[in-house]
Amino acid sequence: MERSLEGKAILLGVTGSIAAYKAVEILRELTGRGAAVTAIMTASAQRFIAPLTFETLSRRPVLTDLFALDADKRIEHVMAPEQADLLLVAPATANTIAKFAHGLADDLLSALYLSCTCPVLLAPAMDREMYSHATVQENLDRLRARGVHVVEPAVGELASGLIGPGRLADLPVILGEVEALLRRQRDCDGESILVTAGPTQEPLDPVRYLSNRSSGRMGFALARAARERGARVILVTGPTSLPTPPGLTRIDVTTAEEMHQAVLGRLDEITILIMAAAVGDYRPSTTAPHKMKKREAITVELLRNPDILAEAGRRKGSRILVGFAAETDDLIANARQKLEKKHLDLIVANDIRVGFGGETTQVAILDHQGGVQELPELSKREVAHLILDRVVALRRQRRGGETP
Description:
By secondary structure, the chain is of the alpha/beta class. It has helices at 22-32, 51-58, 76-79, 94-102, 108-115, 128-132, 134-145, 171-184, 217-228, 256-264, 308-314, 331-341, 380-399; strands at residues 9-14, 36-41, 86-92, 120-124, 149-150, 154-157, 163-167, 192-197, 202-203, 209-210, 232-237, 249-252, 272-275, 282-284, 302-304, 320-327, 346-351, 360-361, 363-367, 372-374, 378-379. Helix 1 (22-32) packs parallel to helix 2, helix 4 crosses helix 7 and helix 9 crosses helix 13 (380-399).
């Protein structure tokens, strides 16, 4: 077996699901690939399978007690995550997911989660109706928004005899996600990445403005993913209610001109620019100082806003530039034209009829060699990492002296 996880330290959380027995095979595969795996078992998990099984196979103590101290008399739920590269919870029950989502810490695993600074990967397993319940889905969405990765459960026959979603994901799927997450760790070390996000607003008067339906989710997902991968990140965002991802610098702007100044003013300190914002193309020529009164009709003269990405392209230097093209038709052709005109390295073409403003999106990634990588509809978090995978590969090519 290829030792693809050599030197990695993984915490394996096992919770009280009938699928707990499958965690044994997960542990065997992880250790077989070179990882040092420490199992953490909830009290409910121990009703399905004995800790001795995990201890024997991992050759490491199994953690079960919230109040236990390690060999140096230190609190285990604080110290155990210190050297961990990943916390994998498989299977993850609805109860554990709820604890994580709401910050409860009444057992070792939930307390340990709150102490983790490494990536967290959940593999839910439960009955069909439970998994589909709005509360479970809301808790998963809340965790995803905080940066937790989720392996969607498989569809099939469940312990209840029902057929549907809720089965623990297949072993190759879980292992593939583990390897992808660990492979990406720190691969953006040394990079300074500026990401733009959200809409811009161009005021008509003190209460009205021109804008668009962008939620900012794609840009925020990119900023979070870049920070997780070790980059220094500057997030320049238009108006949005999204919480700031941890560990980065956020700059709030309102208009396209403000975003133009924020981006170009920091161009000299960054190595990568990713323009995911939906910047307004036009602004009113004048802004009324007072609220405009209702009339039968009004005429508004519009002026072109500065083209931030085009100007960055003219000042490109050795930076990598990534743009977005939101289109309703001729998606690839229009994106290709924008990529070439603005001297971009990559452009992400998204059909705004799929996921614009939502949690998922469907995009194609184009490069300047004519390549087109078409992706299925995915979460914006998944898309963010796939975009960064391309950026990292491009940076490595350049540093290695290859022609990108």
